[in-house]
């Protein structure tokens, strides 16, 4: 008898339930859901009430998260009933989107929450992701659910949820918009002797999430036939998934796959699936939080250029995608972030510089980037 999917009666997350199970614990909120039989009236009443409450919370959440001011058309409030979403021809689709602005700090970002709201709309409308299979973690001031704040623990739980129970045909997406950094490589598994790391909202007290952990959590468990795309809009993110192969492509489109495996590193690939990472810059580079691309709203350069490229040219290949993103970013003039007023505007015009940022592509396996289409 095949596994089935049930909703957590506490947070609404879709859970994979073994056929013999009557009670299951949610990997995201750790709440316990009673999986009762159809002829058990108490179980039916309990779960019906829980599902109704979750649908109401989901409806309110959709209203709150659709308020992004961007160049992309805003989605209409998504109806809460999952039965209205047609089954995907690519199998089950799930996504974890993290946007962190680090409010009140000197290194605050302005566009990260915008990025994940735009990415959510993009996944639903461009690639048919069910709205209730997208988990969004932000430090938006309007976010009241403590489980949806992008703390280190919540991000770790969300990543485990993303791959838990995945099977052939599944399409998984991890999008992160925030700060990235590098740490000294202590286990000698990096070519450049540095680990790449993501910075949760509480990283100063709880620590960063390094690439070794990300690889172990969402790359290595990926089963045969499943695919994972990571879209990482952060500094120092070139190899943040620790994937074996990094694509080096020049301006003319010629490319080679560099092998980044080391004998001391152990296996960094998947369990048979395909993992692809599109990152904002190389490991030594920085990424920009800017309004220069949209002309109006502050966004991450990677997120904006990726969405625009796919919307402008549906069905494009990976090579064409990376080339279009680099072209959109290259030559764009940016000023000094944080300067306002007439004098500051003049300084920005005088001192404005071209963006020095090149999106990168890495993968768990080599493929022809000029023939393989980008599909989420």
What does this structure look like?
With 376 residues, the chain is an alpha+beta fold. It has two domains: 1-65, no CATH class; 87-363, Rossmann fold. The chain has eight helices and 19 strands. The chain starts with a strand and ends in a 13-residue tail after the last strand. Mean pLDDT is 81; it is low at 37-46, 62-90 and 335-341.
Whole-number mean pLDDT: 81
If strands are numbered along the chain, what order do they take across the biggest sheet?
6-5-7-11-14-19-12-13
Overall structural class, as computed from helix and strand content, comes to alpha+beta
Under CATH, the topology of the largest domain is which? Rossmann fold
The percent range for helix content is 25-40%
Low-confidence sequence ranges:
37-46, 62-90, 335-341
Number of strands: 19
Order of helices and strands: EEEEHEHEHEEEHEHEEEEEEHHEHEE
Protein name: Metacaspase-1-like isoform X1
Domain Zinc finger LSD1-type: 8-30
Domain Peptidase C14 caspase: 93-364
GO cellular component, one term: cytoplasm
